[in-house]
Design brief:
The complex is a heterotrimer of chains A (441), B (306) and C (329). Chain A is α/β, with parallel strands linked by helices. Chain A is 49% helix and 15% strand. By secondary structure, chain C is mainly α. Chain C has a two-stranded antiparallel ribbon. Classes of the chains: A alpha/beta (441), B mainly alpha (306), C mainly alpha (329). Chain A: Keywords: Periplasm, Signal, Transport.
């Protein structure tokens, strides 16, 4: 028995000794900065490749890439670290956090940083709908990096068997196709519902069809914006989705299964999901897969869809050498070669025109026609107040509220109108809190 | 000898078999998932029988995840948590149950209340506390006016010089986890069941309190220490949120953080097979602890039964 | 004066004015002897020294951060720490006005009680069974403990997967039995699922302690009772149960704390609080609002409510149970 006590004591003492010896801070000649990112799998491999290439391309700076979980976890970790001054130089943050980042007073706008550090970046060369989203005034506050938009993936074999060439352009026609696929028993489920459906099928739907999501130009014109989507055809869109769920046309993946898996396995015939799904689909789908534009409502001239993905932000409170390193790295990322390689590797859209032209010239889109849908869809029609994007404070929270209320409609606890009314009123409370905090700047 | 009822014995075996099946089912599916290629994993329905890719997936994971380093980190951190928590808790529980002193119950409730706000709920301030350990001291010195006295007397500014961050250190990974009362509560419960005669006899012999603790109470506590060590080792090893938030240096990550990085997130899909295969070698140390320490608490118990 | 106290006083140095004063003060400050051994030591200094490591760690890594967290309950604050607006009790008012919060409180109450009792019953049955049998004891125990080694990060994902209505094999069996299982669309199924997952995750814990406690029952006592002709059930009831009660009480509290606080990881992996918030327990809400939504003010207000409730229930449990547990058998 005492042997056990002694053993434990020795082990513990050893652990304590090691603990006190810790804190590895090696002296380095290079200026080293951290970049916290939130992607896994193939996208992460791409990120690490870019970092390795940058580090090999020069000998003054070193970028260390660290994955901090998903977007929310990375964001929260960044905030925790920022509060005590231990934050990274560069943080990848989702498009949803745009306003929060701008109002945080914690960032250096990238255009400002690049100018300070003596780089000239041709901001006009960035693909317009992408760059526009990150603009404050005339110059972007963040470096667009992994930008996406949702496209309509479909199983060409299933559509052929049902007698269609591909997904229809309008929602009512598309609905008929889905019901036909189900009734003919061509697949187990006609459509899989992606977990970020609020982004593609609600927000994206509002963009493409030019319906207002909130007042004040979706928040672009002031913090006193209010959500209004309970008064637009979004109601009818949610009704439609509810009907599909009730009729077993659309399937929810739920936890423990990636919705994309329902599509790539051939179980579901369609899914509305990010163009970044290309890596997964190309690797795993064993059928004639393809993608199409998102449908729009009848009689509507479709506008551009909304962007997704994330951008790179530079955080305040770093030394000049560290800022120089960050600028050098962002400059490296903005190069057409890097851009084109990144887009080809991941399926994200090329964010500069130069990279886009380069890929076109190389015949990339002829070989991979679905890769071009996203960027075309992002540029379709003339941008309107309703389609140029969303600027709502605490958007992570209001999106969560929206999803919760829509689920209440799907589970039959509320009618669709009641659910969306509740989502709007709860969302507006959040907006008011945000306004109260940030209005007096 | 105590006679045994054969019907009851059979019922007991049935209960145990059912229990074993219940708890092992997910384990089996994790193994199945880890033994297929990515494409096979992505099939619907999911394969019910194991494939042949397990070793390959595990090897890939080991290499990509820097596991030789993070395993070492996990061991240091976990042993630190186990030893630190047991050591501080035993003496605290000893003080609370075997000493009569002012504020005894207050001390107990102060410790006990720490069960009521887990680290996940107060994660941002805890991060601040660990990144700036001297903060409260500075604050106290400021409030008491001591820092301004020192500044006038010596010209030394405490604010600037008195910083101490535990970010990316083993201590920072260990201490916030030690600060919880489960173990104190457990030892209190146990000490209360120890016969009073032991203490009375010890006192009659003139045994000093610390000697009583080490020579009488500790050996009696072996089963409890072993049970608690298993629990703490596993809980410490499987910590996720705190190390994830708290380490930025890849070389300071723990095995679970490395494992979680294989679990697919966000826009990118796939990689489940690697994550599941990795989960098997990550769970190896806790498994060995269960196998090894079980004997210890069985042994302690056989002794006390005599 | 109780005999043991007399013994204790006899052992103390005589005529020490200080010790008499100190005992008087102690009596004043801690009128109850609850949780103190009948035979105890003196020495406030030594006791303080023994307590100090624990208390210092708690001060730095628990009380100060908790105080900071809780003090945010009366403000609206920018998570970056830049701006904050004092809002008085508004965070609380909004909380209690919220229908979702009231549902969450109701859910948490039933969920905590249900998982606590089910866990104890199953773990108790397994521990009793393993205590009874002779053969294969080690093998059973090992197998039952083994899954405890898997990280919750992985187990949560596996549970979500196994019961996934589209692909999960167990969900498939349920469908084959004619049950309309779908935790994505049927809130009740989701509640059942997180309860089962939480119970499953915690059985091992209770099992370890109950097994240890049952093994600690001196064989000599049982044999003596058997010689006296006590039946198996009677021996269990009169010898094993009383000796195991302190452990059961310990587990009851720990299960309660576990159900209240530590299940958020499971909920996050299995249902993400859905559908429609039907599995959002109070602590999951605190975690979501504080860590994901970064609404620190509301999250802090929720923490205060949660902590107050937890402390209240714990005191009630102590009052109801601790006195009934007989520590001196």
């Amino acid at each position: 028995m005492s042997k056990f006590v002694r053993g434990a004591a020795v082990a513990g003492a050893a652990a304590c000794l090691l603990a006190s010896l810790a804190s590895p801070a090696w002296a380095q000649d290079k200026t080293s900065i951290e970049w916290w990112y939130a992607n896994g799998g193939r996208v992460e491999e791409g990120i690490q490749k870019i970092i390795a290439d940058f580090n090999a391309s020069q000998d003054k700076y070193e970028v260390v890439g660290i994955k901090k979980g998903n977007y929310e976890e990375t964001f929260a970790a960044m905030i925790a670290a920022y509060r005590v001054g231990q934050h990274p130089s560069i943080i990848q943050s989702s498009e949803r956090t745009f306003l929060t980042m701008i109002d945080s007073n914690a960032i250096v706008p990238v255009s400002e940083l690049m100018t300070q550090q003596g780089y000239t970046v041709d901001w006009a060369n960035f693909v317009k709908p992408v760059a526009d989203f990150y603009l404050v005034g005339d110059t972007p506050a963040a470096m667009p990096f992994n930008s996406s938009t949702a496209v309509m993936w479909y199983n060409a074999d299933h559509f052929k068997a049902a007698g269609f060439d591909g997904p229809a352009a309008t929602w009512p026609e598309f609905e008929k196709q889905l019901y036909a696929i189900k009734e003919k028993g061509i697949s187990e489920c006609a459509m899989a519902l992606n977990s970020d459906f609020y982004w593609s099928l609600i927000e994206g739907y509002s963009s493409i069809n030019d319906y207002p999501f909130g007042t004040k130009g979706n928040g672009f014109e002031g913090l006193d914006t209010e959500y209004v989507y309970n008064t637009t055809p979004v109601v009818q869109q949610v009704e439609r989705l509810k009907k599909w769920i009730d009729d077993g046309v659309i399937q929810l993946a739920g936890q423990g299964l990636s919705p994309m898996q329902l599509y790539t396995s051939g179980t579901c015939s369609t899914i509305s999901a990010s163009t970044a799904g290309h890596a997964d689909v190309e690797a795993n789908a064993k059928f004639n897969w393809s993608a199409a534009f998102q449908p729009h409502e009848e009689g509507v001239e479709p506008h551009n869809s909304n962007i997704g993905g994330a951008a790179l932000w530079v955080l305040k409170g770093k030394t000049d050498a560290e800022n120089a390193a960050a600028a050098a790295f962002l400059n490296f990322i903005a190069q057409p070669d890097t851009q084109a390689w990144w887009s080809e590797w991941t399926g994200y859209v090329p964010v500069t025109n130069a990279a886009y032209e380069k890929m076109k010239a190389a015949g990339f889109f002829e070989k991979h026609p679905t890769r071009e849908i996203a960027i075309k869809q992002l540029s379709q029609g003339t941008p309107t107040v309703n389609s140029r994007g969303f600027r709502f404070g605490n958007s992570n929270q209001t999106s969560a509220i929206l999803v919760e209320e829509i689920q209440a409609a799907w589970t039959g606890q509320k009618t669709v109108q009641q659910a969306l009314d509740a989502a709007v009123s709860r969302g507006n409370e959040v907006l008011r809190q945000y306004e109260q905090l940030h209005a007096a700047q | 000898m105590v006679e045994r009822n054969p019907v009851l014995t059979i019922i007991c075996h049935l209960i145990l078999l059912a229990g074993a099946a219940l708890v092992c089912l997910p384990l089996y599916f994790a193994f199945v998932a880890g033994s297929h290629t990515g494409a096979e994993m992505n099939q619907v329905p999911f394969p019910l029988l194991p494939g042949d890719q397990f070793v390959e997936n595990a090897g890939k994971a080991w290499q990509q995840g820097n596991f030789s380093r993070v395993f070492f980190n996990s061991f240091v951190v976990t042993l630190g948590i186990v030893f630190g928590k047991i050591a501080t808790s035993i003496i605290a529980a000893f003080a609370i149950t075997y000493f009569r002193f002012p504020f005894r119950r207050t001390a107990f409730w102060l410790i006990f209340i720490s069960l009521m706000l887990p680290v996940e709920v107060r994660i941002l301030p805890t991060y601040e506390a660990v990144a700036d350990v001297a903060g409260p001291v500075r604050w106290a010195l400021d409030v008491l006016g001591i820092s301004s006295v020192i500044a006038t007397l010596t010209g030394y500014r405490i604010d600037a010089g008195f910083n101490w961050s535990l970010v990316n250190t083993y201590s920072g990974l260990i201490f916030p986890i030690i600060a919880s009362a489960t173990a104190v509560f457990l030892f209190r419960q146990f000490f209360l069941t120890v016969p009073d005669e032991l203490c009375e006899a010890a006192k009659l012999d003139g045994t000093r309190p610390m000697k009583f603790l080490f020579q009488i109470l500790l050996p009696l506590s072996i089963p409890n220490i072993a049970a608690l060590a298993i629990i703490l080792f596993i809980a410490g090893w499987n910590q996720y949120l705190w190390p994830m938030l708290f380490t930025t240096d890849k070389n300071m990550a723990t095995a679970i953080v490395a494992l979680k990085n294989f679990v697919p997130v966000g826009d990118s899909e796939g990689g489940w097979e690697i994550a599941m295969a990795a989960s098997f070698f990550v769970m190896l140390p806790p498994t060995l602890v269960i196998l090894f320490l079980q004997r210890w608490f069985a042994k302690g118990l056989v002794d006390s039964g005599k | 004066m109780q005999p043991s106290e007399a013994t204790a006083l006899k052992g103390a140095p005589k005529g020490a004015l200080f010790s008499g004063w100190s005992a008087g003060l102690a009596g004043l400050l801690a009128p109850s002897e609850e949780g103190l051994k009948r035979s105890y030591f003196k020495g406030t200094g030594l006791a303080a020294a023994l307590l100090s490591p624990q208390l210092i760690i708690l001060l730095f890594f628990f009380f100060v951060p908790s105080w900071k967290a809780l003090s945010l309950a009366f403000v609206q604050i920018d998570p970056f720490g830049g701006k904050s607006v004092f809002v008085g009790l508004r965070n609380f008012v909004e909380l209690f006005a919220s229908e979702n919060y009231r549902y969450s409180a109701w859910l948490t109450f039933w969920f905590t009680i249900t998982q606590n009792i089910i866990t104890l019953v199953i773990a108790g049955a397994l521990a009793f069974a393993i205590d009874h049998i002779v053969r294969a004891r080690y093998a059973y125990r090992t197998v039952i403990l083994l899954p405890y080694a898997i990280a919750p990060v992985v187990t949560g994902a596996m549970w979500a997967f196994l019961f996934n209505p589209s692909v999960g094999p167990i969900a498939g069996w349920l469908h084959a039995m004619g049950l309309p299982w779908d935790p994505n669309l049927r809130p009740w199924d989701a509640v059942v699922l997180i309860t089962m997952a939480s119970v499953w995750n915690h059985i091992c814990y209770d099992f370890i302690f109950l097994t240890a406690a049952m093994l600690a029952v001196p064989q000599s006592l049982r044999e003596a009772a058997a010689i006296d002709g006590a039946s198996q059930w009677r021996r269990f009831r009169t010898i094993t149960v009383p000796l195991v009660m302190p452990t059961v009480f310990y587990l009851f509290i720990i299960n309660f704390v576990y159900g209240l606080f530590d299940t958020f990881g499971i909920i996050d992996a299995v249902t993400r609080g859905g559908p429609a918030g039907s599995t959002t327990t109070l602590v999951y809400k605190v975690y979501q609002d504080g860590f994901v939504n970064l609404n620190l003010g509301s999250s802090a207000a929720q923490s205060i409510v949660l902590m107050a409730l937890a402390v209240l229930f714990t005191i009630l449990q102590f009052r109801a149970l601790d006195r009934r547990v007989n520590y001196q058998v």
